[in-house]
Design brief:
homotetramer, alpha/beta, Rossmann fold, 6 helices, 7 strands
């Protein structure tokens, strides 16, 4: 099958949300998958290519500016002259849950670096491509999406290495939406509130009612719906949770 | 064309968002349109019926409990045994913008009654039907949607007859989402931030960049996308604004 | 003891927060206490007068515009030529906690009327006096304070007759702060989050750690501290909760 | 004059808010002033000591864990057996305002490090002392206060190196309030919204109405009022702005 006319990048692809988003966006775009280690994205790359889509993966650490710039250069070589229609930052904040007084400076920095420093680096690499894409005639406005969490709007004990980074990410996305909206780039922040149904969470919530975990494919459908919004009618932020979630 | 298998009600149908939502939901449902006066919905009813859908309209004042209960009874007679798949409260708060000290008690009440008292009455009439629908096998979870405004999250001078009602509505929708989510009813609140492109606003923002007004059809697409979310993956709240909006 | 040079009005005086605020403000002002029935304020009026302050009470229903206007007229007669230094709306929202589908329209309106309609009426009667006081040479800027609740920022199941009114009140206070701040009137909103220690709550939280209830006298100290802020340095909103409160 | 019975530390002391807070808290406590360079605090230390208080200063970079731990060790030696009654993080976020695509990774990190990493390090050093003080019989509960900014609740274009750090700080303070409130430590976050009247801002807002800048001494009074709250009646967050501020 012929390659698609534009590119979607997804950073933070494991077997859950990232894979689902990549598969969804592969219906219209060539997808580029980023993860720290290839085994996080290899199965998804294979699945997309085998089902008629076009996907490639790159190992990259979003905290490493050089690494991310290299990826964008390679993408440009791989898909010359194709605009970037979507760049999605889905990197889960890595963090260490523990009492505040037992947290190390390194542990505290970890959440910041994976949640928001990586987002900064990714956004800076992606935006010139997205701004340029906004001037081409794509079917949907180019999108810069960020996956957030409940911890972006609520601080909790023991989550000092997670929540501040997610608050910071939320703030960054709002700054970006205000700065780059008028340039035609659609910036959105998705607050995922609940347990996502992935291999890792298979044994969680065993006693909860059926459907208590968020479906990654349905998250991907929502990202896709937001991506399809015309520039007159953009969503910056929405929340997503299961019907039985307490909040 | 045969009638559809379920019903969608839209309260607050004029030539803008309400009409667009009705037309969108008419692709899958028999639609019932409510407005205070028939001339608000007649053109849309006609358009839907002529293009192969099924629509009826009822004049009703959402502030009048009896009036709204009557509508639901008539709907039940009109479409016997059909579940209610969606009930959408799109009534724009009526209000009077003026200095606080010139505002009358009646003017202050007006915003409250149209924004949130009407929503209370509409929700109470709709929920038994929606809960019942949640136990049937509809393609999408039954939805109870409310159209809100920026004034739901930001108080402003001269808007005392508008903003408190919108804050109250937002609160009501959160209470309802928490109470009826576990019963399978999807409750959402849409914050519309900007000028909607309707006949009434035709002359507004003449000097603004192209695309500075929100497209009602795109709002309807977003409502539809949220309606399609499975119960594992529900959005309670999202905002919608044009790419050039200052916020 | 000679009467003080200015007046403070407190609406919603029972044996808890209202009484404590009245006693605190009586140290500098003649205080006027409002409640629906005189037995709510009589003990406090007596206590203030016996301890060298000046207090009078008026029965008034804040939902009744005429009743409130009468009070302000009588106050003007009682204390001729004295400016109004503070007007404090401390009326607890009256509401009925129950499942949404069992709530009546009257029950729903009750919370609205006591929380926000009364605040509207009280503010309209008080503001001309406060604006006028802002031009006199009082020691502290005239203040218009409102007691709010957690329900002003969080919707919950079964609280549909309470929370929307508190959201609306919060919005109203923000509108007022923005409109009347520049005129020299200090408008504030106090979010009380927790059980207040009053005769009514004597038996509550029996098994909780010592100090689990909010001290009305300490609330009054906080209101007083905010009242003392100069106009360069005003607080619109703060929260108050016990050290052990979960939130 | 004899040294006071407890200690207050203020990190981030220049000629504005930090100095005012230090002078205010010096009325009851021995105060310890921290700044990166001694010339930031020397005048204030001198002024406090000359007016009968007790003050010492230490140069320290809040981003440097070792430096901050050293300060606390020295403080313990300087004032043996005296509890820490207050620790106030008043470090203004250092940041570089510029278009997002011109911002460097270092510039982005700068705001984070000064706003929130420093706060983390300071809080970790202070909390063991504050928890211990909560078990002694001080007149007021030990306090851990943080100075925030409007940018803590609102993202803006060109402020990507400032606002995310302030959001993160706000989140951190909420986590800390929830974790250490029950241990008797009062954690608060002050949102300063407006220009503070300092030597640096002397020429700003020249054409604005009188009183358009926030008075540092009045900020200090507010911090002091919050410090005096008993543990039954604590404020976590409040905002502060001039009466004419637009918001």
């Amino acid at each position: 099958m012929a390659a698609k006319q534009a590119i979607a990048l997804v950073a933070g692809v494991g077997p859950g949300t990232g894979a689902a988003i990549a598969k969804k966006f592969a219906s219209l775009y060539n997808v580029v998958l980023l993860a720290r280690t290839p085994n996080s994205y290899e199965a998804t790359v294979k699945e997309i290519n085998e089902s008629g889509g076009t996907a490639i993966g790159f190992p990259a650490d979003v905290r490493d500016e050089v690494s991310i710039k290299n990826v964008f250069e390679q993408v440009t070589k791989e898909f010359p002259d194709k605009p970037v229609a979507a760049a999605i930052y889905n990197v889960g904040g890595v963090f260490i849950r523990k009492p505040f007084l037992e947290q190390s400076v390194e542990g505290f920095k970890l959440g910041y670096e994976t949640s928001v420093l990586g987002a900064f680096i990714f956004a800076q690499a992606a935006l010139p491509h997205l701004i340029s894409a906004a001037r081409s005639s794509l079917s949907h406005p180019p999108s810069l999406f960020f996956t957030g969490a409940t911890a972006a709007v609520k601080g909790s004990p023991y989550l000092q290495s997670f929540s501040p980074g997610k608050y910071a990410l939320r703030s960054l996305t709002q700054s970006l939406a205000k700065e780059f909206g008028p340039e035609g780039v659609h910036v959105s922040h998705f607050i995922i509130d609940g347990v996502i149904d992935t291999p890792k969470t298979k044994e969680w919530l065993k006693d909860a009612p059926e459907g208590s975990k968020i479906d990654p494919a349905a998250i991907a459908d929502t990202y896709w719906a937001v991506h399809q919004q015309p520039r007159t009618t953009w969503t910056w932020e929405l929340d997503i949770r299961p019907y039985v979630e307490k909040w």
